[in-house]
Amino acid sequence: MRSPSSLKQEFLKKWMMGLHIYGSLKKKMSLLERKKAIKLSADIAMASARNGTTCWSRALVANASKDEQDKILVQHILGTESERLMKKVSVLPLMSNKRIRSKKVLRRSYGSIRRAKKSNIAASPPNKVLAISIAKRLVRKRTLLLKSLVPGGEFMDEIALIEETLDYILSLRAQVDVMRSLANASELNNKN
Amino acid sequence: MEKEVFMNEGTQLTWNSCTFGMEIQANDLNSATGQVPSYFLNPNWENSMDHSDPFESALSSMGSSPAASNAAGSSDNVREVITRLGNLRSSSGEISPNYCVKSKSTSNSGYSTPLSSPRMLNLSMVDSQIRGNLALLGNELTNLAPLSVDPGFVERATRFSCFGSTELPQRLVPTPRMESGMLSRVTSNQSIKVAGSHQSNKNSPQNGNSGRLENAEIGDSKEECSVSEQIPGGGSITKSNNGTNARKRKSTPRGKAKETPYPSASDAKVAAENDESTAKRNKQDEAAASGNAKENDENQKQAKENPKPPEPPKDYIHVRARRGQATDSHSLAERVRRERISERMKFLQDLVPGCNKVIGKAVMLDEIINYVQSLQRQVEFLSMKLATVNPRMDFNMEALLSKDIFQSPGSLPHTIYPVDSSAPAFPFGYQPQQGLSLQGGIPNNMERQFSLNLLNPSAPRNSSMQFTSMDGFCDTAPLVPSFWEDDLQGVVQMGFGQNQPQNFHGSMTAGQVKIEL
């Protein structure tokens, strides 16, 4: 993994590029439009700064390139990599879907086996079983939530999810850092 | 088995330590980094009773090494783990089953060892003594060489084969190693076979050398811990038993041990393969209903890898079930999965602030979710802020830069980092941002409008402003969120240490030279 500072620099470079593209595409924008543009370009810059090596960045790009106009931006920001990334993106969900389905089947059968076993064995301490099931449910609920938070999380299994979350957090941190610096700077700029 | 172990305990102490010393020596001799064996040996042997702690630390460092993907580091760690494993073996109360075999072998040959030498003496061996033992053992090995040809001996050894094969992993079952093992119990037939082939074919004085060679190869390869830890074990057994067939799994019939020119991927490739193969093996584990199916997989794999030059097998992963734990492939795979998850959760725990004290997965996930959400909200908020602040979409970099430089220290608490003695040249608030902005602006130069010269006016001003801005900085330093410090520090070093000279060489001015002071 690269150092956070180089990530930030990469991010800032791409983000500025994206903002300039937006600025040249549309002259007049409402506040919300502007906000959306800024956020989108920041996200894509973040994703491309990670160089498409992570699932979440690919998923971000995929989500962004759904919109026709945003797609142009994405292509601009990603530049030469865009084709590679887009291709990856188009392939990825299909593959992972297939994998997920088979896994689900596996898990279902597996779960039924285990449940049968459990009902035989663990009838004696009902409280403990209850507690375990509650804990499991809690964890599952939170995992689902986390999956919805991390882009592309629906397609990940638990290990991948945690790894991606790690990476995503690091990137988000860098992003927030850079954005805050810029926001503060431009605020100051406007004041004077 | 336990009985046998204890029966032989009294007689074989010296043997143990001798062999053991040699094993470690062999490992360390071949380590590319040239670690001094006594470095690992001494502390462990002194407090040999609490072997779980150093072991755990070794494993934790192991655990962190894959994340860093630092190949050299991981190999070092592997070696460390190996060494510690060895210590564990020598220091724990009972004698490993391996030594049973050894005792038989010695009695068979009529070779007599000093039986009653105190163990502690051997435990406190340091480097030179180990070397001495190595030489000694070399002699012994030549003496014992004819043994492995003896059919009766082979037969006896076959009886003990299960002990020998399970030697290392089994002894480890109660230790923390299994907790963080993250490796599935996949068959080790292949390695056993290779060990067997070593034994059967190299029963000459050369034998010891072959064992050492094996270790050398392993030492160089970057491997997951249990893999290489197992094989040095095999090597040592080959050495100590002079080619008895000690390494065998119960499930593997002896006749199957065949000589295969063993596959050897180049080290780097193996390292890269390792994770994949682990995953694959897990899947195989799931899919395979019986041990036979697993064995078939192994054989297929072996066949696949055959064209490569010979080297001992590496990608074998041992997970042993503890007493009372299920051993079917499903639950083993499940356990491995859980261990992996918990390992990664630990990384997350370190990353997310306030997550350290939390116990319980659900709560931890809560914290992580909160943190991710807060970060995402921050991004939203900041983009909103930027949108309001900039009515036009163009971000005037020149203005921003100059503002950054002139006004940041007093009025921007977030981006200020604490004074650090390591960076005394620029302990001022906003320079990270400046470094960033400069860096960001320059590459766009070719096609976009951030021109180099806009940086030039800012640079001299910056250098003159540095010294006036200290006061505000010192006041606001305590407000810094702790987790930014490192990053910003890094930015400073990056921005000023390395990047500027490269980027500005075209338009270097006196002011920029000053920045780098």
From TrEMBL, chain A:
Task: Specify whether Signal is a keyword of the entry.
Answer: no
Keyword entries, A-Z: Transcription, Transcription regulation
Domain of life, per lineage = Eukaryota
Ranges for domain IBH1-like N-terminal come to: 5-67
- Signal peptide from the UniProt entry: none
GO BP: regulation of DNA-templated transcription
KW ATP-binding (keyword) present: no
Tell me which PANTHER family the record gives.
Answer: TRANSCRIPTION FACTOR IBH1-LIKE 1
| Annotated protein name in UniProt | IBH1-like N-terminal domain-containing protein
Question: What is the organism field in this record?
Answer: Rubroshorea leprosula
Automatic annotation (TrEMBL), chain B:
Residues annotated as domain BHLH: 325-375
One of the record's GO molecular function terms:
DNA-binding transcription factor activity
A Pfam family of the record is HLH
User: What organism is this sequence from?
Assistant: Rubroshorea leprosula
- Residue ranges with Basic residues bias: 246-255
Query: Where is composition skewed (Basic and acidic residues) in this entry?
Result: 277-286, 294-316
Keyword check for Ion transport, yes or no.
Answer: no
Keywords assigned: DNA-binding, Nucleus, Transcription, Transcription regulation
Is Repeat tagged as a keyword? no
Q: Where is the composition biased (Polar residues)?
A: 192-212
Q: Where is this region: Disordered?
A: 51-75, 192-316
Q: Mind telling me which InterPro entries this protein's record contains?
A: bHLH_dom, bHLH_ZIP_TF, HLH_DNA-bd_sf
Q: What is the lineage of its organism?
A: Eukaryota, Viridiplantae, Streptophyta, Embryophyta, Tracheophyta
Places the protein is found:
Nucleus
Protein name according to UniProt: BHLH domain-containing protein
